[in-house]
Amino acid sequence: MRCMVPGDDTVWLTQLRRGAVEHCVLALLRRRERYGFELARTLADTGGLLAGEGTIYPLLARLRRNGLVDTSWRESVEGPPRRYYRLTELGELTLSGFIDHWQRFRDGVDAILEGG
Amino acid sequence: MPAKTAADRMIATYLGQLRGELRKVPQPRRRQILDEISAHITEARATVGIEDEVSIRSMLDRVGDPAAIAAEAGAGEPQPKNHWGDMLVPWLLLLGGFVYFIGWFIGVGLLWASPTWRLRDKILGALIWPGGLGGLVVLSSAWLATQSCGGVAPAGQRPVIHCVTNGVSLPPALGIPAVVLLLVAPFVVAIHLERVRRGA
């Protein structure tokens, strides 16, 4: 199994990130709209949640295609207009479902890791 | 326009690598990702402030490995089915006409049935030329000028030779380029279809 190769942390890390980061994006959009650069910096600065800041853009495009976020263009004082992302109703539902599962999942993993 | 700096060149190289890695991503999506990352780099560059090579390199490292961005762009997408017939299409269109024309018809059928090519590619493939190279051979034997001569030589007289030209005859200045164009066009179309297939 590829994921069990000792010392090769890239495969499982990629898988773990992929599941979690999409929902972290939804969580960041819960309070207010944000644009790509802002989301990328926040996620990259928080515990290396992104493999690279640029990986946020295909991910955002996917969330948008799946109807979890919506976008609108806004003028910016510093430069060209920016594409802002906001949570849709479906996005909110998905996020609250994830939060429930995540808490149980995290507690389960922690219990095993600490007690094992 | 100000001259390109070393930083501009590094960024252009990075975006070029990214474009290469994204070649399998469908066009509108690829364009959007490239535009957004380009805007991201512009903003990141403004926050760095310093334009030395080390700062630009570390800024681009933060943006990420182009391969990782491309992997994310392909993630969660249904993998395009490997259409086995696709690889035959350019060959069948080009050469299928020699197999009693059936090969060419099969090629056109596969071309139109496949989601790999867009409508304009399908029209192009079907129209240039019906029968492919095989069609050209048939066409040329039927249409291009042929000359047949025959003569009689009555005893003691100079032979009388009659030549008859059948079909269309063009002066060489027009005829040669026309023939070259007719021959080259199906190759160009086949190469185009093959490139679209590989890029899909």
Distance from N terminus to C terminus of chain B (CA atoms, Å) equals 37 Å
Q: What is the element string of chain A, with H for helices and E for strands?
A: HEHHEEH
**Oligomer designation:** heterodimer
Query: What value does the average pLDDT of chain B take?
Result: 82
Low-pLDDT stretches of chain B are none
- Radius of gyration of chain A from CA coordinates: 16 Å
Radius of gyration of chain B: 28 Å
Q: What is the averaged pLDDT score of chain A? A: 88
Strands ordered across the widest β-sheet of chain A? 1-3-2
Helices and strands of chain A: which structural class? alpha+beta
Total number of domains of chain A: 1
Strand content bin of chain B? 5-15%
Largest sheet of chain A: 3 strands, antiparallel
- Spans where pLDDT lies below 50 across 5 or more residues of chain A: 1-5
- Discrete helix count of chain A: 4
- What structural class do you assign from the helix and strand content of chain B? mainly alpha
Strand content of chain A: 5-15%
CATH superfamily of chain A: Winged helix-like DNA-binding domain superfamily/Winged helix DNA-binding domain
Major beta sheet, strand line-up of chain B? 1-2
Task: Give an account of the 3D structure.
The complex is a heterodimer of chains A (116) and B (200). In chain A, β2 (69-74) and β3 form a beta hairpin. Chain A has a single domain, classed as Orthogonal Bundle (Arc Repressor Mutant, subunit A), CATH 1.10.10. Chain A is globular. With 116 residues, chain A is of the alpha+beta class. Chain A has a three-stranded antiparallel sheet. Chain A has four helices and three strands, in the order αβααββα. Chain A is 57% helix and 12% strand. Chain B has 200 residues and is mainly alpha-helical. Chain B folds into two domains: 6-74, no CATH class; 86-199, no CATH class. In chain B, 63% of the residues lie in helices and 7% in strands. Chain B has a two-stranded antiparallel sheet. In chain B, α1 (6-21) runs parallel beside α3 (53-63), α1 runs parallel beside α4 and α5 packs antiparallel against α9 (172-199). Classes of the chains: A alpha+beta (116), B mainly alpha (200). Chain A binds chain B through residues 14, 18, 36-37, 40, 44, 50-55, 57-59, 61-62, 78-80, 82-83, and chain B through 18, 29, 32-33, 36-37, 39-40, 42-44, 46, 61-66, 68-69, 71-73, 75-76.
